[in-house]
Amino acid sequence: MSDFPAFFAELPADIRLHYVDTGEVKGGDDTPILILHGLVGTPQTELANVIDWLQATYRVVAHTRRGYGLSEPKPRQFPVNFYHLDADDVIALMNVLGIRQAHIMGYSDGGEVALIAAGKYPDRFKSVAVWGAVGYYGPAMRPVAQNVYPGTWMSEEEKAIHSISDPAFFTLQWVQAVRYIIDSGGDLSASLIRNCRVPVLLMLGEEDRLNPVEYARKLASNAPDGRVELLPCGHAVHQEVEAEFKEIVGAFLAEVAGKS
């Protein structure tokens, strides 16, 4: 687990978020990057290689989403609007830290949160880059999502980090919420993203079993400036093809800077 400077932020409604903040960068881009982890992750366990790379040029802020790791309230819960609650937490954290505008990135569930935040609060972001996220939970995702239950894939370390005593109950809550989203039409951010006037990048592994590429293309077509990059890997693009991931994201951020 990487040792980045970490702090706590007190948000409204008794939300307490543990977050990494790499601090200001002299001579770099003065717009911070917010980056969000996925299911049963934290910034340190899931995104350390990305944060370490980005911090040479950017201030990186990466919080542990409510209920995970050291963030509160605990235990982590999954009401049907949990993605939207997490997106609202992003804005609340930005307000507490005095961040008016940021680039936002996210992996897997964190990517879905990033897309919703960008669609709900478009004026707060300069760019959006996600991987393992597609903004639309269609019928093709049902069988794979259901396989998340009963959580036998979860490591002992993950259970300890998030205080998960019953992986079956934990994953059942997530599956039930996702099934509700699918049954309700599947629209997480596919319509919201129309509000987003900044560049939106979706990276997806060609072998990603959870996220069909046609769903990513559906979302990108709804964004005023959206694109999809396919890579020869599975779900964890930033880990499986790290060099290609950094090349694409680096070029994307340079392009965004050029448009500013």
Q: What's the topology here?
A:
Elements: E1 6-11, E2 15-21, E3 33-36, H1 43-46, H2 48-54, E4 60-63, H3 82-97, E5 102-107, H4 109-120, E6 125-131, H5 142-146, H6 156-161, H7 167-183, E7 200-205, H8 213-222, E8 226-231, H9 237-240, H10 242-259
Parallel strand pairs: 3-4, 3-5, 5-6, 6-7, 7-8
Antiparallel strand pairs: 1-2, 2-4
Helix pairs in contact: 3-4
Q: What labels would you give this structure?
A:
18% strand; eight-stranded mixed sheet; alpha/beta; globular
Largest sheet: 8 strands, mixed
Helix-strand pattern, N to C?
A: EEEHHEHEHEHHHEHEHH
What does the radius of gyration come to? 17 Å
Summed over residues and divided by their number, the pLDDT gives a mean of 96
Helix content: 25-40%
Tertiary shape? globular
Termini separation: 35 Å
The total count of strands amounts to 8
- What is the spatial order of strands in the main beta sheet? 1-2-4-3-5-6-7-8
What fraction of residues sit in β-strands?
15-25%
Structural class given helices, strands, pairing? Answer: alpha/beta
**Helical stretch tally:** 10
Please mark out the parts with pLDDT under 50 across 5 or more consecutive residues, or reply none.
none
